[in-house]
Structures are given as structure tokens and as C-alpha cells.
Recover the amino acids of this structure.
């Protein structure tokens, strides 16, 4: 009896324990479900916010592109207005000036009389140069036309720096839909008096719309432009109603017009913001607007359906899996999520650093490009004011040439560093004389060192292998960068030393180890700067070097090219004690290659021997044609022009045309490009045309561009800006009949 009672009690206690355990398990499961739901919702909301912010960022990026575009176009119209007004031009003279100056034929200009809105265009059309779209607006009583006229009056009264946009409307002479930027211009009347007009520069809407591309995760997002008072400047495809404010009212606030005042006030008083309203289809959408600046009355407006922003909802399968495996899988999943979060955090940090590096790169590049450009533009303007002083004009042009060469060097450096970092830089190793290459570098540096009042010592010792195999251009680029820095950053009275030596490679007779030492007793570098000196656009902060021109790319290029060639570069430096760079390469010698033929002698291109040659230049750019024509004319060389590849073929096939000795072929031209024209000439049945020397003369200067020209059948390649000495050497080779031989490997 007692045992039964004890057994019952034990059984009852066991049930209580199991019930407690089951209750704990249920509480744990419910807790995990709740935690999983909360966590899943949090992640969903976080991803939702990230995607929404990414949409706003994408709109901001497109605004930046559009803002730069409008600033450039406004700069053109401001410059035209200033020059026309200061020259007291008549209306006909102004239109002729704009037509002559404007190289972009689809950028039409209108001069509008604000008294009666009559207007003339810079583009010749069937009606002469008169247009009547603005007069029709004045005769119309529609709100849209009245708003456009009011915007024209605002542009006419605005300050020169204000960014106001008139749009969008269709013009008859080009049959394009455009928006306009403008400025007030003063023209001389027939009686000698002055009168103010509105000068408008028309921008095809399609140019802007092509630059508005959303990422693929926003398939139905659209972009438009609105003014600060809610009028459309460029209306997106599905945005209806007369204005943006009317759109919001018609599809959202039809029963409560008072709230429209809040929307209008928000647009007028804030620079950016995100609003949620319905579109014409009744879909909930986000509308993000952002101003072009305090001097502009225009905002970019992007909108996207909320459905495009939504992300996946809670995954109940994962929750059931978590519940089924209880704490173990919960712990594992928690650790995995923590790891993912850390990776996301790390990725975000890397993205932030990359964005900062990109911003720094663009800022540095803008500064270093604008500095010589300021000299080019400024000295050109100064020269215009002293046309009757030849010596003064020559001095200005010398400075323009110096700044232009610096700008070309900077551009080449930027392209080099870009090709290196993208892995597209290739080497062209060939056998060459080390001593001759060193002599060439010494000749370049010695003159600069003498001008800077520096001692320049050169020592070549223990060099037994003169013919080595490497890329001579890149080797000179590395060493000249280091030698140039040594000269630039050593003060007058200092010394620069260039030491070249050779060491044997143990067990190898077909290879040699070359060591180049560039040492100076200049200003030196701090330890802190030496940690970042190989970073692109990195320059030390020092009042002594701020006035020295430099891009901060030289050391970056030197190091990366050295590593690309399999070499090593080391540096020792201290402030006030100078700098020593040591560059070491292990390179093949001539004995590592089969017997090489003797190099062909380069044509000297004596200009007096080339008088009377006839050259056909295929060049679509007027300014480039004027440059090459004038240069050739100085040496008695006759040159004719073909505006594109098709015209070039027509001239060469014209029996009445003169015989040409060579064709200088641009590559990028309208109607027919230079490569296609060359292919057709090389397939021509006439042997005289088929074998006619053709030389590429183009700004496409990458190695792949040169290879493409060779593949098309061109005999040589001359890069722009044109070096007249190279042109003369090429012409002499063509005259002597050896240009085809120079093309052979």
C-alpha cells in the first residue's frame, strides 16, 4: 500500500517534470519563433531602407551628371553672350558668329526679342532663319504656354550665374524636343542704339535622357526635371497632368487641396526630399527630388513604385528549421548571421574607402588639369589683347606651349596608371643598347639640371652586357621619372648623381642584373610621406614644392612599372638630407635571343627635301585641319582636305584630282571612319590606290588602337597632338618608298 502510494507520487512527480520540460521547450520554441520573426523583420526593414537609399543615391548620381551637363551648356551661352555684347554685334553678326563657332550642329541657338517674342535661329532653315514657336506661345492662352513665357522672362531677368532651364518644347528647324539655358545679350540696332535680347542654347532632351539609367533592380523607375515651383522641365513617360503639383493633386489630394500648399512649400524651401504618393495607375510610389543648387530653380525628380523597393518577406521555412533544431541550429545560425554582418560591415568599409579614393582621385585630377588649362586659356586671352606686340605674343604662346606639354604629360600619366591598375598595360621587350639609352636620358636631364644650377654626375661601371632585352620605352619612363623628381626637388647649388652598374647572375650567362641609383641632396621626404609616396596623386605638403608642377603620379607609375618588369625599387630619404632611389632589374641579354638583324636607320626627315609633295589629309575637325595644313605649308608641302573617309575615297577615285604621295588618315570621322576607308583602298583594283601610303593621324593612341590601324592596312601611326618632326620623318620614308618596309616586324 505504501509502495503504491510512493509509486503514484513518483509517477505524479515524473509527469510534473515532463510537463515542466515540455513547457520550457514550448517557451523556448515560441521565444525562438518570436526572436526569428523580429530578427527577420528587422533584416527585411534594413534591406528595404538600404534599397530605398540606393534609389535616392542613384537619382543623385544622375543629377550630378545632368548638373555638369547644364553647367557646361550654360558656360557656352554665357561666353557667347559676353563676347557678342562686348563686340557690339548686330543680330545678323551674332547669328553668324554663333554658327561659325558652334561645332555641335545639333546645339541650335535662338535670339529672342522679348518685346514681341519674335526669334531667329543660328541654323539655316526653309523660312530663312526666322522661327515662330515663341510668338505662338504668346498668342496662346493655355497655362502651359503661359508658364513657358514666364520662365523665359525669368531667364531674361536672371543673373549670369543663375541656372534656370526652359523646357521642354519642340522646335521646327531640327524637329527635336529640347530644353534651353540662356542669358541676356546686348545687340546693336540699325540706328546705333543697344537693345537687350534673350540668347537661348537648345539642348536635345534625348541627350539627357540617355544618361539617366537606373540599376536593373529598379525596372520601372523614371526620371524627370521640375522647377522649384512644381512645373515640368522634362516630363517623364508616365507623369501626367500639366505640372507635378497638378499630378499630385489629381491622383492623391483631389478631396483636400489645402495639403497642396504644404507640398509646394516643401519643394520651394528644401533642397531634397523623399515623398510617397500614388501615380496615375494608383500604385504607391516614392518620389525623390533634389535641387541643382541655390542658384538654380530646377530639381531632378525620380520616382519608383514601392513594389520595386520591397524585398522578400519572412522565410517561415527557415524559422521551422530553427525551431526543429532548437538551440544548436539557433546558435549556428546566429554565428553565421554574425559572420555575414561582419562581412557586410567590412564590405561597406571597403566601399567607403573606395569611394573616398575615387573622390580624391577626381579632385586631384581636376586640380592638376585645371592648373595648366588656366594657363592655356589665360595666356591665350592675354595674347589676344596684345596682337600688335609680336614679342609679347610669342612669350604668351611659349607659355601656352609649356602648359600644353604639361597637360599632355599629365594625361599620358593618368592613362598609364589606369592601364597598369586595370591590368591592360603590356610590355614590348626588344634588344637595345643600354649605353645609348642611358646617353639619351642623360642628355635630357643634363640640360634641365644646368638650367636649375645643379651639378649632375653620371657614372657607368662594370657594365659588360651592352645589348639587353627589355621594353626601352618603359625603362626610360621609370628612370626619367626618378631623375626628373631629383632635379625638381633639389635646390640650386645642389647635386644629382646617376649611377649605372651591372652584376652577374650566378650560373646564368644569358641574364644580367642591372642596378640604377638616382641620388640627390635635395629637400628629402618625411617618414610619414614615404609611407604613401607610391599612392596615385600623392604629394608632400611643403611650401617649397607647392609651386612645382607635378601630378603626384610619377612615383606610382615608376613603382608599378618596375614591378611589371619584374624589378625592385627601394628608397632612402630624410628631410633636408636628400633622397636615394635604387632600382634593380634582372634582364635577358642579347645572347638569350637568336641573331637579330641590324636595326634600320631612321629617316632624318630633312624638311628641305620634301617641298612639292602632295598630301591628302582625311580630317573632320576644322581646327585640326588648319593645324596640319599650316605646318605642312611651312615646309613647301601641298595638302588638301577630305572631311571624312567617304570623301577621301571620292577624291582619290576622281580622275581629275591631282596625284597624292600619301594619305594622312584620321580614325574617328562621320559617314565613314578612317579604318574602313583604308580597308576599301587596300582592296581597290587600281594598284596605284591599293599601294598608296596611308598613315593614321589620330588621338587614339593606345597600343590596341595602333594595332587596329595596322590591321586595317595603315603603314604607320602618328598620335595627336601632332609632332611635326615625326610627320616629316614619315613623309620622307613615304617619298623614298621605304614606309612599307618600316611596317614589317
Amino acid at each position: 500500500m505504501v509502495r503504491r502510494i510512493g509509486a503514484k507520487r513518483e509517477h505524479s512527480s515524473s509527469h510534473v517534470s515532463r510537463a515542466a520540460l515540455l513547457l520550457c521547450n514550448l517557451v523556448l520554441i515560441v521565444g525562438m519563433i518570436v526572436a526569428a520573426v523580429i530578427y527577420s523583420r528587422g533584416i527585411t526593414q534594413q534591406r528595404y531602407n538600404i534599397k530605398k537609399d540606393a534609389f535616392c543615391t542613384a537619382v543623385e548620381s544622375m543629377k550630378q551628371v545632368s548638373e555638369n551637363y547644364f553647367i557646361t551648356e550654360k558656360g557656352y551661352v554665357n561666353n557667347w553672350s559676353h563676347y557678342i555684347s562686348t563686340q557690339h554685334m548686330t543680330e545678323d553678326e551674332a547669328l553668324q558668329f554663333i554658327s561659325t563657332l558652334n561645332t555641335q550642329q545639333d546645339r541650335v541657338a535662338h535670339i529672342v526679342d522679348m518685346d514681341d517674342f519674335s526669334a531667329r535661329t543660328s541654323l539655316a532653315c526653309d523660312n530663312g532663319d526666322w522661327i515662330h514657336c515663341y510668338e505662338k506661345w504668346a498668342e496662346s492662352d493655355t497655362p502651359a504656354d503661359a508658364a513657358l513665357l514666364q520662365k523665359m522672362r525669368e531667364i531674361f531677368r536672371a543673373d549670369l550665374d543663375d541656372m534656370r532651364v526652359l523646357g521642354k518644347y519642340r522646335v521646327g528647324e531640327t524637329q527635336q524636343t529640347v530644353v534651353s539655358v540662356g542669358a541676356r545679350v546686348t545687340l546693336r540696332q540699325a540706328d546705333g542704339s543697344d537693345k537687350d535680347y534673350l540668347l537661348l542654347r537648345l539642348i536635345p532632351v534625348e541627350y539627357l535622357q540617355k544618361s539617366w539609367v537606373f540599376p536593373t533592380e529598379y525596372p520601372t523607375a523614371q526620371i524627370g526635371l521640375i522647377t522649384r515651383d512644381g512645373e515640368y522641365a522634362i516630363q517623364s513617360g508616365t507623369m501626367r497632368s500639366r505640372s507635378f503639383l497638378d499630378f499630385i493633386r489629381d491622383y492623391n489630394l483631389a478631396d483636400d487641396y489645402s495639403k497642396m500648399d504644404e507640398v509646394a512649400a516643401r519643394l520651394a524651401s528644401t533642397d531634397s526630399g523623399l515623398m510617397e504618393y500614388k501615380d496615375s495607375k494608383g500604385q504607391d510610389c516614392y518620389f525623390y527630388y533634389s535641387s541643382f543648387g541655390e542658384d538654380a530653380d530646377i530639381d531632378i525628380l525620380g520616382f519608383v513604385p514601392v513594389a520595386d523597393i520591397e524585398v522578400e518577406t519572412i522565410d517561415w521555412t527557415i524559422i521551422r528549421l530553427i525551431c526543429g533544431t532548437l538551440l544548436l541550429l539557433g546558435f549556428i545560425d546566429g554565428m553565421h548571421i554574425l559572420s555575414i554582418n561582419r562581412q557586410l560591415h567590412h564590405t561597406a568599409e571597403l566601399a567607403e574607402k573606395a569611394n573616398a579614393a575615387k573622390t580624391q582621385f577626381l579632385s586631384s585630377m581636376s586640380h592638376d588639369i585645371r592648373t595648366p588649362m588656366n594657363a592655356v586659356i589665360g595666356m591665350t586671352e592675354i595674347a589676344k589683347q596684345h596682337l600688335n606686340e609680336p614679342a609679347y605674343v610669342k612669350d604668351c604662346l611659349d607659355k601656352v606651349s609649356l602648359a600644353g606639354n604639361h597637360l599632355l604629360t599629365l594625361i599620358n600619366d593618368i592613362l598609364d596608371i589606369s592601364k597598369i591598375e586595370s591590368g591592360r598595360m603590356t610590355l614590348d621587350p626588344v634588344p637595345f643598347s643600354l649605353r645609348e639609352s642611358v646617353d639619351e636620358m642623360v642628355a635630357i636631364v643634363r640640360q634641365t639640371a644646368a638650367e636649375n644650377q645643379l651639378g649632375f654626375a653620371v657614372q657607368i661601371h662594370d657594365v659588360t652586357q651592352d645589348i639587353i632585352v627589355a621594353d626601352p620605352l618603359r625603362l626610360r619612363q621609370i628612370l626619367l621619372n626618378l631623375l626628373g623628381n631629383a632635379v625638381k626637388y633639389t635646390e640650386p647649388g645642389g647635386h644629382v648623381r646617376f649611377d649605372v652598374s651591372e652584376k652577374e647572375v650566378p650560373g646564368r650567362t644569358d641574364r644580367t642584373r642591372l642596378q640604377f641609383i638616382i641620388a640627390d641632396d635635395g629637400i628629402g621626404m618625411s617618414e610619414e610621406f614615404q609611407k604613401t609616396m607610391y599612392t596615385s596623386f600623392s604629394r608632400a605638403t611643403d611650401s617649397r614644392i607647392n609651386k612645382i608642377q607635378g601630378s603626384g603620379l610619377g612615383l606610382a607609375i615608376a613603382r608599378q612599372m618596375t614591378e611589371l618588369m619584374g624589378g625592385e625599387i627601394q628608397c632612402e630619404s630624410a628631410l633636408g638630407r636628400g633622397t636615394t632611389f635604387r632600382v634593380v632589374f634582372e634582364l635577358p641579354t642579347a645572347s638569350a635571343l637568336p641573331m637579330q638583324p641590324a636595326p634600320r636607320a631612321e629617316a632624318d626627315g630633312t624638311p628641305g627635301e620634301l617641298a612639292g609633295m602632295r598630301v591628302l589629309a582625311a580630317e573632320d575637325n576644322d581646327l585640326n585641319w588648319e593645324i596640319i595644313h599650316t605646318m605642312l605649308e611651312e615646309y613647301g608641302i601641298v595638302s588638301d582636305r577630305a572631311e571624312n573617309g567617304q570623301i577621301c575615297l571620292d577624291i582619290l577615285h576622281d580622275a581629275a584630282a591631282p596625284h597624292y604621295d600619301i594619305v594622312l588618315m584620321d580614325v574617328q570621322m562621320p559617314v565613314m571612319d578612317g579604318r574602313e576607308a583604308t580597308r576599301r583602298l587596300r582592296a581597290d583594283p587600281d594598284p596605284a590606290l591599293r599601294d598608296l601610303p596611308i598613315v593614321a593621324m589620330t588621338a587614339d593612341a593606345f597600343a590596341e588602337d595602333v594595332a587596329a590601324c595596322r590591321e586595317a592596312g595603315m603603314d604607320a601611326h602618328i598620335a595627336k597632338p601632332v609632332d611635326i618632326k615625326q610627320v616629316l620623318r614619315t613623309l620622307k620614308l613615304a617619298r623614298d618608298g621605304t614606309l612599307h618596309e618600316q611596317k614589317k616586324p
In short: Confidence is low (pLDDT under 50) at residues 539-550, 595-605. DSSP finds 21 helices and 23 strands in the chain. The CA atoms of residues 372 and 403 lie 5 Å apart.
